Amino acid sequence: MHMPLSSVGPGALEALNARVADDLTYLDYPRDKAWTLPRSVDGLPVLDVLIVGGGQTGLSTAFALRRERIGSVLILDRNPEGYEGPWRTYARMHDLRTPKNVTGPDLGIPSLTPRAWFEARYGAARWEAIDSISREDWAAYLCWLRAVLALDVRNRCAVEQIVPAGQYLRVNCQSGGSTHSMLARKVVLATGFAGSGVLNVPEVVRSGLPARKFAHSAQPIDFNALRGRRVAVIGAGAAAFESAAVALETGAARVELFVRRPQVPRVNAFHWTDFAGVMGHFAELPDLYRWRFSKRLLEAGHPPPAGSLQRCVPFSNFGVRAGEPWLEVEDRPEGFRVRTPKGWSGFDFVICGTGNAPDARKFPPLAAFADQIATWADRFTPPAGEESPHLAAYPYLGPAFEFIEKTPGAAPLLRHIHSPNYCAQVSMGNSAGAPGLRFSIPRLVSGLVRDLFVDDADAYYRQFLEFKAPEPESIAFLNG
Q: Which domain holds residue 227?
């Protein structure tokens, strides 16, 4: 029986680590031998599953595959160790946007939950006092999870291209200034928000300003360089308000947030979707309903979280300009001018909190497959009046987040590339964030394991026919 942790800090974390190890022995993790069949090509080993991205989805997937005794799984992440996900890079909220009781990476094991880690570090009283986990604590929790599970992660390794290589996928990577390749049967793109297409910078900004005068909210931004400057922010959601907040807190002279809509959205329609029916079974809805739900969510928009808005409100040099889409930009030696329906204004820098275009065909590592990735435009025709070019560009994914060929037979390896990131929104629902992990990871891993077994059915049948392990000698007397 587990004893309650009697203290907080390093000693309690060590006790929690021991408790995790004990819990995993009850699940025979990882005592059983792997069952997948090792293979190599010209001396280069072939991975069963290569995971791109070492954040919450990548770590959870690797853990789930280990529990299924998959033999060779490797995570590649372009960031240094300690940067599991965006939480210490472009994420700028103080606290997560999800409630503190969110679970997922733990795969249902209580000692691996965020709460278990948090209480070991800070105590149960502090857990009771918070509503959400801080961004920094979530990052620290993921670092702990990676370490306590001893997951195989290779950092500072950027995936540049995925190409067909016979019956396998060749993944070309950049690491330490050199390029090298790996072979894999399956590739999982656990690349989150920024790695699911292309960041959406409005054309009026991209074509009208030099790169030094704008940035997307999902890119690194030197906020210290904006101290004393006039900053514009485009967007009405969390990323826009959080970028505005950091600019204000760092000492920008003026920050104005431009909203295309007549008013900032007040209702977060995603909150309605946060129940098991939607989270677990959105992918099984008829296409018409998947499309209609997605279109309504797109049209409703995302209001800023209360905490993000409250960070901006106290600043007298902050303003929101609703109903002002950008129509024209005029670059100048010092700053620039922008025209909206309400006239011209001058700024020095603009941050685009304008989301991304989740078109997998525009994701550079998938360039070799781009022309053959089926999209919703290829598979579904919405009723008259319900069209959406934005949603039509999303990939039309299979039941385990796998890409599907636009032309059957033209790119058979596409089904071995799985994309549990934000480009899965229309096909799979809101599965890429932390609340969706407890539903999406079992679905993804079930599909991976299924294919790893079924695709080798002939070899496993031969193993089965050769199976000769006798039962105990005590049974021998039955045979005379």
A: 201-265+302-354
